[in-house]
Amino acid sequence: MTESKLNSMNTFVERAQRILSTSPGKRFILVRSNIRDFKLVNQVFGFQKGNEILQCLEEYFDKKRLCFDVYCQLHIDQFVFLMEKNSYSEAIFRTIADNCSNLIMGSSFRVHFQLGIYEITNPDMEILSMCDRAKLAIKSIKIDEPFSVAWYNESIMEKRLYFKKVISEFNDALEEGRFLMYLQPQANTKGEIISAEALARWLMKDGTILSPSHFISILEESELIWKLDLYMWEKAAQLLACWKQEDDKKNLSISVNISPKDIHYIDIEKTLIGLVNKYNISPEKMNVEITETSFVSNPAFYVELIEKLHNAGFAIEIDDFGTGYSSLTLLKNFHADILKLDMGFLQNNDNLIRSEIIIDSVIEMAKRLDMQVISEGVETQEQAAFLRINGCDFFQGFYFSRPVPIDKFDTVLKAYNLERTNKGAKHPKSMRNLVLEAV
Known about the structure:
Elements: H1 9-21, E1 28-36, H2 38-45, H3 47-63, E2 70-75, E3 78-84, H4 90-102, E4 112-119, H5 127-139, E5 147-151, H6 154-175, E6 179-188, E7 193-203, E8 209-210, H7 216-221, H8 225-243, E9 253-258, H9 268-278, E10 286-291, H10 292-297, H11 299-312, E11 316-321, H12 327-333, E12 338-342, H13 352-368, E13 372-376, H14 381-389, E14 394-396, E15 404-405, H15 406-421, H16 431-438
Parallel strand pairs: 4-5, 7-9, 9-10, 10-11, 11-12, 12-13, 13-14
Antiparallel strand pairs: 1-3, 1-4, 2-3, 6-7, 6-14, 6-15, 7-8
Helix pairs in contact: 2-3, 8-9, 14-16
């Protein structure tokens, strides 16, 4: 793109500042455009096609230059525009998004054209800071649409600052042992706790304990989740080694999670086998949970990984089943042992009858494939009763127990043991009470 057709960034900054300083009565916005994953266009279709898209952008913006007070190319596929707010129209930019997509018609690949918009409230702010805010708006876009727009607001900045805080404090927290392992019990239809899922909690320096929703997605995005997973796997192995010496726990198992990002940093098979050998525990006691969405990114890898872990004695669980788009393909191609059913089907659902039909069919299908079924997220007695009647093997959810620290897990376990040996004991309704009512 030539200098005669497009201002350099320095010229853009100078002209934008001059326009803002001499137009006190006007409202302006700064618009930043981005083609998501533009590198893939070059990789999939070749550089010639990428150049065609860039030329399309150049010609269109030159044609529409009267709509903008000033504009500039920031990077090869990113542009920034200063324009009056009342001159802005999504149609201006949606058209160019459609034009770019038409250049690769006939392909399943779609060009994703994104806009981040910062409404200028302080004309004295540095132009580059405005550009950064528009960029943050783009980063906040989560929807997967060919054309998407996000307006900057202060909550976006707050989230970005929190993101940076998590990243900056993570390594120190890991070294200081401030990630805690919580256990959420899993019970069978007889009311016996037979296993638990290991879940991470972050103990902040002020004593606050953060749930995974406050940091897991950030660690995944920043490619740090593998460090936490390694830490949690080791904690689980250590605990199983301790349980070997206790009669009421020696038969329990613990489920640990594998993140999709782990495969890029960890030799998962070697690491897990190394842990069971290091702590002299049975691999049968350490179940491996792989989320359904993980398989989509690299199915061939996971077919091989599951086979290797099976041969080593680990049980494989497909987690969050029902949340993705390849569920039936998974059941056909991946020989897992346990299906963890996502209970979102039964929560706040206007089509409850249809949801129950689907769940009933999934459980029956899993049985015919020689898989056991855990229902997670069970919150009500009615849900648990329905699942029990339809053949669910294990239950996990707030109705039975929230995730608890390791020392509190002992209390939960003793309460269930007490129920089985003393019917007159006073304690919350147990699994055994529940399933008897459901029969």
